[in-house]
Specification:
This protein has 404 residues and is an alpha/beta fold. It has 3 domains: 25-92, Winged helix-like DNA-binding domain superfamily/Winged helix DNA-binding domain (Arc Repressor Mutant, subunit A); 98-213 and 386-398, 2-Layer Sandwich (Nucleotidyltransferase, domain 5); 225-381, 2-Layer Sandwich (Nucleotidyltransferase, domain 5). The protein has 13 helices and 15 strands. Strands 6-5-4-7-10 form a 5-stranded mixed β-sheet. A 5-stranded mixed β-sheet has the order 13-12-11-14-15, sandwiched between helices. A hairpin with a 2-residue loop joins strand 12 and strand 13 (246-247). Helix 10 (313-337) crosses helix 11 (353-366). It is elongated, with a radius of gyration of 23 Å. The model is unreliable at 1-22 (pLDDT under 50).
Length: 404
């Protein structure tokens, strides 16, 4: 079983659900329904009287809301006895409360819907134009989420919240994207507030590498791993850190920025302004740029995978150099944190041992021998879904759902 990575209580930095007309009767009913759903998520099946006491709503209000939720197949009810009296027990159906996981990248948006039992109900991704602005990405995510809710036939009121990951650092105090993101157009944008206004549910923002780490111990085969490093290699490179069973955020949330660790003092100038950062050697952006120089057509990430499978010498050399650099950066982290497991994810995960072997060599060369001997390195089995799955898990755990 995975470690409990977050408190079941609501994040104090997360806004309450935002509604278009907060004073309207429909908004009041929606808030009351949300209170009942959250009570059922946190405490399991209850009688209507117990729900009334827990939520502070009147018996009549609870009865009317439960009746509507039953009609919409959000809950199941059955007769029971409480204190010797006949009562009605209310239980959330598996899809009576769902979580949305949203992953917004440099050129894509992916949305998943997950049930309380950590079952993936719906999933879809779309391509986004390079350099898309924040409003364009958030609008696409909103429309895709609405489509999946409709496709699943789940009432909008069943949505517990939305977890959102982006490739860049997030100031957890404000939910604002800060300098260093792969999406420079998003810097300074308060995604938590803007998305909450669009989605009208609690929104939880995090760095995509952190969500990849959370996914590995929630959806992947690494449940119970107390100390894990998840390294995402894509257009940017970042690490999500699980220390003593919890995601580590540091002071304000800017952790795991290994893409900007110096690997070569005389290397290329990085987008962060420093020289020789890991991203200038091992990101998919630099890899495709290097391979495009000797190709008549631009090379993409899919081409790297195809050429590696065909054992193209130039591609294998670029992959080997990148892997050694990632291994060196992983060693620096491992020497500090002494993890049980280092998982490599991102768009190159399908390379398998072709990428993993040079990473292992880099780790062996630069890690303390005992750290290397006691740390397992492997590729993620979740592929490009990891970040969206982690985002959905974040919502379920923040809203008090049982840990898988």
């Amino acid at each position: 079983m995975p470690a409990d990575l977050s408190s079941p209580s609501r994040n104090p930095l997360t806004p309450e659900p935002v509604t278009a007309k907060p004073g309207s009767q429909s908004a009041l009913r929606a808030r009351n329904r949300q209170r009942i759903i959250e009570a059922l998520v946190a405490s399991g099946p209850q009688t209507q009287a117990e729900l009334s006491r827990q939520t502070g709503l009147s018996n009549a209000t609870v009865s009317n809301i439960v009746k509507l939720m039953h009609q919409n197949r959000l809950v199941s009810t059955e007769p029971t006895t409480s204190s010797g009296r006949r009562a009605l027990s209310v239980r959330l159906n598996d899809t009576g409360a769902v979580a949305a996981g949203i992953d917004i990248g440099r050129s894509h948006v992916r949305v998943v819907l997950a049930s309380l039992s950590y079952r993936i109900l719906q999933e879809k991704s779309l391509r986004l134009p390079l350099g898309h602005c924040a409003s364009e990405g958030m609008d696409a995510a909103t429309e895709l989420l609405e489509e999946l809710l409709e496709r699943q036939g789940v009432d909008r009121s069943a949505l517990l919240g939305a977890g959102v990951g982006i490739p860049g650092p997030i100031d957890r105090r404000t939910g604002t994207v800060v300098q260093g993101a792969i999406l420079p157009e998003w810097v300074g944008i308060n995604m938590r507030q803007d998305l909450a206004e669009r989605l009208r549910v609690p929104v939880f923002i995090d760095n995509d590498a952190n969500l990849g780490a959370l996914a590995e111990v929630t959806w992947g085969p690494h449940g119970g791993t107390e100390n894990l490093i998840f390294i995402k290699v894509a257009t940017g490179i970042g690490a999500g850190l699980i220390i003593n069973g919890s995601l580590y955020y540091g002071n304000v949330g800017i952790t795991g920025e290994i893409g900007h660790a110096t690997i070569s003092d005389q290397g290329l100038i990085c987008r962060c302004g420093n020289r020789g950062c890991l991203e200038t050697i091992a990101s998919t952006a630099i890899m495709t740029e290097l391979l495009s120089r000797s190709s008549q057509e631009p090379v993409g990430t899919a081409d790297i995978l195809a050429r590696a499978a065909a054992r193209d010498p130039a591609t294998l050399r670029v992959i080997d150099d990148a892997g050694m650099a990632v291994g060196r950066a992983a060693a620096n982290l491992a020497n500090t944190l002494n993890p049980e497991l280092i998982v490599v994810g991102g768009s190159l995960a399908d390379l398998g041992d072709t990428f993993l072997e040079p990473i292992r060599r880099g780790l062996l060369r630069h890690a303390v021998p005992m750290v290397d001997e006691t740390s397992t390195v492997m590729m993620s089995s979740l592929g490009e879904r990891a970040e969206a799955l982690g985002a959905a898990a974040l919502v379920l755990q923040e809203q008090g759902a049982p840990v898988r």
